[in-house]
Amino acid sequence: MKKATLLIAILFFLVSIPVEAQCAMCRAVLETEEGGNAAKGINDGIAYLMLFPYLLIGTVGYVIYRMRKKAHQEEN
């Protein structure tokens, strides 16, 4: 079960879906631009910035999990 959960988590992070997220003002300004290169850059930047809070929370969760697992093993 743990291997399956780990495999699913790894696949979840490796498979990416194009994300289109902008505030209303950014969208209005970028839609008027020709070519859309700036809009693509803004979307990539938003997705990049969203990654780090999830990595931080995941890392903290993993560290807590390891500490609790180690404490549980020392009790037995």
Terminal CA distance: 23 Å
General form: elongated
* Overall average pLDDT: 81
Largest sheet: none
If you compute it from the alpha carbons, what radius of gyration comes out, rounded to the nearest whole angstrom? 19 Å
In total, the number of domains comes to 1
Could you explain the architecture of this structure?
The chain has 76 residues and is mainly α. It has one domain (19-75). Helices cover 79% and strands 0% of the residues. It contains 3 helices and no strands. The chain has helices spanning 2-14, 24-31, 37-75. The longest helix has 39 residues, at 37-75. The chain is elongated, with a radius of gyration of 19 Å. The protein starts with a helix and ends with a helix. The mean pLDDT is 81.
Quick tags:
mainly alpha, 76 residues, 79% helix, 3 helices, elongated
Quick structural gist:
The protein is mainly α and 76 residues long. It has helices at residues 2-14, 24-31, 37-75.
